[in-house]
Write a structure and sequence with these properties.
The chain has 197 residues and is α+β, with helices and mostly antiparallel strands. Strands 1, 2, 3, 4, 5, 6, 7 and 8 form an eight-stranded antiparallel beta sheet that branches. It has a domain of 127 residues. The protein contains two helices and eight strands.
């Protein structure tokens, strides 16, 4: 039971990481990186064993303004985690055009719902985690930095906040990875790099 309470505390701290502190530009990003490193290095529920995340240099060009466009086929997408969570069902909310390629914004149908935007780009495997990274997973509390809602279906995507899923750090974690429709050929040299050797 104690480990579950620690996990609840870790998740609450992740929410604070995204909610608190400066939020704009490089200053907000640097503060977030610093506080995230402190959390990962010190918390008993951290997925990181020995070390802290490393990042590509901040890139103001990795901040993208886009609109949510309807998806022609719509419907659901199922991603198998390969673990006890099993397959997770997502609704396709729409497509987002970015300089790197189009991405599908998803809504998790389980866990009370939440926005989910996984991305696999040309850096994956060498420079960043091979399975891809997340820009947001609001079911885990990552609100308002990587993906910000703006009025009238507009969104700001800040790829400097791309982060590795927990399975990138430790094999005991299993995660939903970017589906084929969220794999882009362009490199995104922003956000978190590959962890470890």
């Amino acid at each position: 039971m104690e480990s579950l309470l620690e996990l609840a505390d870790f998740r609450e701290r992740v929410v604070a990481l995204y909610r608190d502190g400066p939020r704009e530009g490089e200053e907000g990003w640097r503060d977030w990186c610093r506080r995230r490193a402190e959390l990962f290095a010190s918390h008993p529920q951290s997925p990181v064993a020995g070390g802290v995340p490393e990042y590509f240099p901040y890139d103001p060009g990795a901040v993208v303004h886009t609109r949510l466009e309807p998806v022609a086929d719509g419907g659901e997408l199922t991603i198998d985690t390969g673990g006890e969570d099993g397959a997770i069902r997502y609704a396709r909310l729409g497509r987002l055009e970015t300089p790197y390629g189009a991405l599908t914004l998803l809504w998790a149908r389980q866990y009370g719902g939440g926005l989910f935007l996984p991305v696999r780009d040309a850096t994956c495997g060498e420079e960043s985690y091979g399975g891809g990274r997340y820009l947001t997973d609001t079911a885990k509390g990552t609100f308002g930095r990587g993906l910000c809602l703006i009025h009238d279906s507009g969104l700001r995507l800040d790829f400097n906040y791309l982060y590795n899923p927990s399975c990138a750090y430790d094999a005991r974690w299993l995660c939903p990875l970017a589906p084929p429709e969220n794999r882009v050929d362009a490199p995104i040299r922003a956000g978190e790099k590959r962890f470890g050797p």
